[in-house]
Design goal:
Blueprint: H1 3-7, H2 15-22, H3 38-74, H4 94-150, H5 155-166, H6 172-180, H7 184-193, H8 195-201, H9 206-221
Length: 256
Amino acid sequence: MSEQEELQQPIEPTTQDAATETAPDSGENHDNKPLFSDEQQKVVNDIAAKKAFEVREARREAEALKKQLEDVKSKIPQETRPSIPDVDPYSDSYEDDLRKRDEAIRQAAIYDKQQEYKVEQDSKAKLEAESKKQEEFSKTVNTYNERAVKLGVSEAELQAAGNAVVNYGINEQVASFILNDDQGPLITKYLAQNPLELETLSQLDPMNAAIRIQTEIKQKASTLGVKTPTAPNPVEPLSGSGMPLKEKGPKGATYT
């Protein structure tokens, strides 16, 4: 299952909005105006750092797999299957040729077994990598669903919102961004309720879509979550009758 299918979600902002946000000013300040605001730049930096980490991890896994395959190859003494020569029964060297043929058959059998082992190892490595990827994705989805419960988004709401969002052809990277966001379920719900915003996102590349979600959509989506009721502070109970206390009995009297 892809992140698009599970989230059934995000997309990329309109050309008009992107132009509004990033278009440089004309005039004297053209060269000095920053491309992003401080908040947007922070989002860009965070996303870039995350992607750099993912790239490093992917390279590390690729190197590990490459080394594993090289180890398998090192156990295979021949790169090509030995050819089995024909033997002429009338040859003067018949017995010697027969021994060579038998040895070639033995070597070919060894080669076949090694090739089978290599295929098995390649398949095993691929299955392990795919299993690890699926396990990580399942954890992400489970966390996403748990957040939905805490944020007050029912399973039915989340499914309906996801279906509505994914129909816009959300980029898989944008879907992953929403799945991993602490407000992801609310973002999905908000986008489903605002098709114009979805259309805007569908026009943006993943980076600008993520920036728009983080700097504009997320705050609006947060209002759709569970609202904690605010009750006034309890009134302190009054004690006594409100009349000042007076001494009882004649003046100067004492009581034991």
